[in-house]
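Wed. Picked up where I left off yesterday with histidine kinase. The coffee machine is broken again, so keeping this brief.
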Amino acid sequence: MTLTPIAAIILGILLALWLGGAVWALVTGQRMRREGMQAQGKLDRLAMLLASAPAAPVVIHPDGRLEAADRLAKWLGKPRVPTFSSELTAADGGLEPEDAATLAREIASAQKAGKSFALPVRGVGSSRLLLVRGAPAAPGLASNGGVVLWIFDATDSQSEIQALKGQVDQLRDALEALAGLVEAAPFPMWHRTPDLRLSLVNSAYVRAVDGTDAREVIGSGVELVEPVSGLTPQAAAADALARGEPVERMVPATIDGERRTMRVVDVPLGEAGVAGYAVDQHELEQARVEHRRLEAAQRDLLDRLSAGVARFGPDRALRFWNQPFISLFALHQEQLADAPLFERVLDEMRDARRLPEHRDFPAWRGERRDWFLSPDPVEENWLLQDGTHLRVYAQPLPDGGLLLIFEDRTEQVQLSSARDTLLRVRTATFDNLFESIGVFSSDGRLQMWNSRFRTVWGADEEMLATHPRIDDLMRAVQERLAKPQQSNLVRELVRAATVERKQRIGHVGFADGRIFEFAAIPLPDGNALFTMLDVTDSRRVEQVLRDRNVALEQADEVKTAFVTNMSYELRTPLTTIAGFAEMMSAGYAGELSASAKEYVDGILQSTGRLSMLIDNVLDLTQGEAGTLPIDRAPVDLAAVARASADRVRADANAKGIDLAVTIEASLGQVQGDARRIGQAIDHLLENAVRYCGKSARVLLHGDGGADRARIVISDNGPGIPAAQQKLLFDPAARAGQARTGGKAGIGLPLARQLAQAHGGTLELVSQTGQGTMVVIELPRG
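Structure written out below (tokens, as returned):
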């Protein structure tokens, strides 16, 4: 049969579709097979897991049908698993009748109210205990009203619980016995929980903290001991818990109102907490402390003694020695470190040649050994080969030992010998002093005196030998005084020195014209030293000097008055000369020739110069006398300084000197006399220009601070020698220079007086070849 092309195409399409459907069916079947196998495997694993579970599952349908694992029949002692729930809860279902009835009620309640339950049940005649847990079944497991039971075999757990109950009973009995023992303990005991809070205290603890009962003490957390060095009882318990071993410490505590020393022990109990107890160690510690204190005090006392000390024990071994003992007998620490015996120590002392020489040394040593058995102390004196004198004191001790004390008396012997020599020297020195000296005791009696004392007062040796009182002595010698009543002054001074312990001085005149200065000085021993010194000559010289000083002051006043008067007297003719010269210069006497006019100008310059010199001399004289008049008004120092510079600028230019002026704004104002300050600056600038050579440089500088203003005049001239600087401000030196024809300028002294009159200062700094600098400082007020 022949197919048309269209039929062939349709047939091909149908075949292709059929082939595609077959392939899809094959693939889908393979996939569904794999899913089925996976589901079957998962179901098998869940069945195995359910079979190995510790509980047997039971599903009760609403109609009472029952599905359960085969293990349930074995637990119930039945050959097969019940088919209906009524069989499980029946009287012969394998459960105790009461348990079966209770289980039936719980199942019915779960079916109706959807209530879960847990119920222990026991098989008839069996020791097996079953735990039944019931709950409404899920919708996919059973229809509405179904119940799922999980039945656990709790037999082993119950046995273990019973065993634990027995152990708990035993532990409770042991705990009660232990609590009774703790309560009966005579010392405080307590227990802390793992968080270190008190959980148990005994009656001794309650009494120790003055508590009412244990409940009140635990509730308040009252601690037995106080924190020591920042360590609280809780911290100590935590330390013991961390170490895992008991920790013991000695701490103070207040027990029954008394401070006691307690030995506190914290015992860690692992997870149960920390137990503790405290034992009163006060008396024991006091005894130990007292014993140590006494022993330390004795050792310290013996070690501080200047005498050598050695203590031997009952076995005659050296137990203690001090440093003077080693030094006294030239021993070494190494020789005594191994506690040598008494005989060996004596041998070491003999080897150092620090024992007295004896022909039979063993016998002498044996006699010293008997000191250990002597009932009474023994005292000896040893003279060593080098002249050392020792006093030896041997004291037997109650424990059979021996205490030896070696006192070096060499210095005392030497001092005793030197004292006699010193007394003789003192007597000779005391007796030959130029001063008159007497020593009076506290009762006013004359104890000692020298020959000068006897000579000055003209007293008899026989009278002084009776050690008269100061009253009797003064009555006997008062006629030798220029004023006999001055004897009362001497008595009062001696009394003040002996009774009031006060030092007094004065002077007294004798009838023969002599004058004595005296002093009454208290001595450390309660006596008083009375000394007299002849000052007649010095008083005469002093009077002469005083008279001369008065004469010099009068002469100075005359000089000042003379200079003042002469200054005023010179001004009158000088003013007349200057007036006529000015009139001639102005042409009042007719026209002058050029040479005549030059002469008149010279006259005017000279009269002006002479007038300035007279003013300077007068100012200097008034300044030295303290009568220089000074006005007080605000002074612009910058204007005054520039004006002074302008006045000397012509002379500076004539000599080719560079005059520089630097005035800072801080110079400001002062309270003073503008004319006098300008006068001082003029003198300093003139001196600088006068003594500087050509092409020199002079600087005028001004600045200041909050309380003072400063003006500095400096130059780079030849400078002033150091020896001459000391004479510039000395009036006597200036007068000497004037007499010898030297340059006795008064500019610098006058400038200093003007500065001082304003309360300021003037300082000169100069060095040969380095120039000169003068600094004036003036206060603002």
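Quick read: Residues 288-414 form a domain with the Beta-Lactamase fold (CATH 3.30.450.20).
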